[in-house]
């Protein structure tokens, strides 16, 4: 029998509660049907509440929500170091705080992929914070990491909190988490473009937006029109990248509704935190052999910025293209970045609208 007061379960405990074999419980846990985390020793742990929710649903569980957002809590003097390190990991969106209250508000709103708490300063004040985060069932899917030298701790960390000694080690652990335990959906070797560590999750996030192959929308068309007008380019696009194609949610100056993904300059943009630009594509070894550069329509200049969803995943880009070489100045870069941010807002609004409509339909079905 499992102690009814035991809130955190092992894989064996979970198997007993479900009435299945340990192997079956492992598959449910590792496959994400039951949210879990790993202890510093590498053992899986789950919350009893999540197992009970699975039982009550008759075994039908929705896919675990995903996020690429990371919350970092540290003293102001340490945040610059974390900001530099996070800038080298475009797969995640880092939110940084030196104010605990502001951090907690953000954590409650977004359920981040990971929460990093730097213990270099104010260790005693941070103990209640770490314990509260570890005990919060709503954060069962968030990784928790404490950064600090062992000698700086006079108390034992909760079991689900991993500890490392430095910001560099913290970001190395984060990189491993972002990549996940599964095989990548796309193999990097042999591809003519780079892919994100969390490409599988990014593609799921793209699907959840509901934008793929959807009709044109005035809100997005306004943004591409503004991009073309502001930068005086013949072509402006809002692109969405699937495993095999680059589909244009909005396009100005281009008849093609999509291209093979291997043609997409935006493969590089979605791995950037800011604007990505190429003054002359024909002189860049990454793009010189691209069919759209080598042949018709003879693209030369490209500049784009990533478009994010509400969970921090990059689903595509807003970009401009010209058939003559040119250099992007600071004003133009800020313009593209601002328009991409507006496109991101539109993506989030549509996703929120879909969720609200789904909730309303569920309520309607539940009515007698």
Automatic annotation (TrEMBL):
Q: Read off the SMART domains from this record.
A: GAF
GAF domain location, by residue? 215-357
Q: Which GO terms describe its molecular function?
A: DNA binding
Q: Which UniProt keywords apply?
A: DNA-binding
Q: What InterPro entries does the entry give?
A: DNA-bd_dom_put_sf, GAF, GAF-like_dom_sf, HTH_17, SinI_DNA-bd
Report which superkingdom the organism of origin falls in.
Bacteria
Task: Give the protein's recorded name.
Answer: Excisionase family DNA-binding protein
Protein's organism: Ancylobacter radicis
Give the organism's phylogenetic lineage. Answer: Bacteria, Pseudomonadati, Pseudomonadota, Alphaproteobacteria, Hyphomicrobiales
């Amino acid at each position: 029998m499992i102690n009814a007061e035991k809130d955190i379960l092992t894989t064996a405990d979970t198997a007993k509660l479900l009435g299945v074999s340990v192997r079956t419980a492992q598959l449910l846990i590792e496959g994400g049907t039951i949210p879990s985390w790993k202890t510093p020793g590498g053992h899986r742990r789950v919350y009893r509440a999540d197992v009970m929710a699975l039982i009550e649903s008759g075994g039908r569980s929705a896919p675990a929500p995903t996020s690429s957002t990371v919350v970092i809590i540290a003293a102001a003097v340490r945040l610059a170091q974390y900001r530099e390190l996070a800038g080298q990991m475009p797969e995640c969106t880092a939110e940084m705080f030196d104010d605990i209250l502001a951090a907690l508000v953000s954590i409650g709103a977004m359920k981040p992929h990971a929460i990093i708490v730097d213990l270099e300063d104010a260790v005693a004040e941070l103990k209640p914070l770490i314990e509260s985060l570890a005990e919060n069932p709503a954060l069962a899917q968030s990784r928790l990491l404490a950064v600090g030298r062992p000698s700086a701790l006079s108390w034992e960390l909760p079991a689900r909190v991993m500890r490392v000694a430095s910001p560099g080690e913290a970001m190395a652990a984060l990189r491993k988490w972002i990549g996940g335990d599964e095989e990548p959906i796309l193999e990097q070797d042999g591809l003519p473009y780079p892919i994100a560590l969390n490409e599988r999750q990014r593609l799921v996030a793209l699907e959840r937006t509901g934008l793929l192959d959807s009709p044109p929308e005035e809100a997005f068309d306004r943004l591409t029109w503004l991009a073309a007008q502001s930068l005086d380019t013949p072509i402006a696009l809002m692109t969405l990248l699937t495993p095999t194609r680059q589909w244009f949610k909005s396009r100005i100056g281009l008849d093609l509704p999509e291209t093979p993904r291997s043609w997409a300059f935006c493969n590089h943009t979605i791995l950037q935190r800011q604007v990505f630009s190429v003054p002359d594509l024909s002189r860049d070894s990454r793009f010189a052999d691209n069919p759209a550069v080598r042949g018709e329509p003879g693209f030369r200049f490209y500049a784009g910025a990533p478009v994010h969803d509400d969970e921090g995943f990059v689903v595509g880009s807003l970009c401009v293209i010209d058939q003559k070489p040119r250099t992007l100045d600071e004003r133009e870069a800020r313009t593209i970045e601002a328009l991409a941010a507006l496109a991101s807002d539109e993506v989030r609004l549509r996703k929120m609208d879909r969720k609200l409509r789904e909730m309303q339909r569920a309520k309607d079905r539940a009515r007698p």
